[in-house]
Design a protein that fits this description.
The protein is an alpha/beta fold. Helices cover about 40% and strands about 20% of the residues. It has helices at about 5-10, 30-35, 50-65, 85-90, 110-120, 135-145, 185, 190-210, 215-230; strands at about 20-25, 45-50, 75-80, 100-105, 125-130, 150-160, 160-170, 175. Strands 3-2-1-4-5-7-6-8 form an 8-stranded mixed beta sheet, sandwiched between helices. It is globular and about 55 Å long.
């Protein structure tokens, strides 16, 4: 089972012994399968809203599950990601438990909507989120900051001429979230300057096309500062 750079990097960021991991928008389930195969995580819930995807994934897991550790557990759920019941799952876990929700492969705007809806569905639970938006990372980071999330780790992956920001966040522990990424973030990839130049070009066009869009101008100004400071 070969993972692309983005999925492999996401799997490498799961290095805490979470009691339950949610692989949301799971598609073929490669990420969740990789996480289970590592042996560190004992239970993964695969979630996707498309029945055909979840049916095929269930059959695939039943066929190849013998490759997983004997104590590995999994469940495939066909539902809207924003409706996952973290509180109910927590009641079925040990008294002191920790969950990780992975959301990858969707746009920043949709991820913002999902995160806002999930956050309102639980209270005082020990939950981390590992996010990888397809675009609009600046806007997503701003919303996460407003929701009082903190950054535990972040990484930049470049694949097929596209950049992906991987964000491991928590409302309990971590550093303040940067709207543009920390110094460590920009040092995590030797080709980060290419991604930065693409962002600057994008927000230059966006700021011109929509003069009323202040967010684009703020993003442009902030990314220019990054270029001056780190490159």
């Amino acid at each position: 089972m070969k993972l692309n750079k983005r999925l492999l990097s996401l799997s490498e960021m799961v290095h805490e012994p979470y009691d339950l991991v949610w692989d949301c928008c799971c598609d073929h389930g490669l990420l969740g399968f990789k996480i289970l195969a590592s042996g560190l995580i004992k239970q993964v819930n695969f979630v996707d809203v498309v029945p055909d995807i979840t049916d095929k994934l269930t059959a695939k897991l039943q066929q190849h599950g013998h490759h997983l550790p004997a104590d590995a557990g999994w469940q495939v759920l066909c539902q809207d990601v924003s409706e996952i019941n973290l509180e109910k799952s927590a009641q079925q876990l040990p008294i002191v438990s920790k969950q990780l929700v992975i959301i990858s492969g969707v746009g920043g705007d949709l991820m913002i909507d999902i995160m806002k809806r999930i956050v309102t569905s639980y209270d005082d639970l020990n939950v981390d989120f590992l996010l990888c938006p397809v675009q609009h990372s600046y806007k997503l980071r701003k919303v996460l900051k407003d929701l009082q999330f903190k950054s535990k780790a972040e990484r930049l992956v470049l694949e097929n001429k596209r950049g992906y920001e991987l964000l491991l966040i928590s409302q309990i522990e971590g550093q303040p979230i940067s709207l543009v990424g920390s110094y460590e973030f920009w040092q995590s990839n030797p080709n980060a300057n290419i991604y930065l130049e693409n962002l600057i070009t994008h927000y230059q066009r966006s700021a011109i096309a929509s003069e009323a869009n202040q967010l684009s101008q703020f993003a442009l100004d902030d990314y220019r500062v990054v270029k001056q400071q780190y490159f």
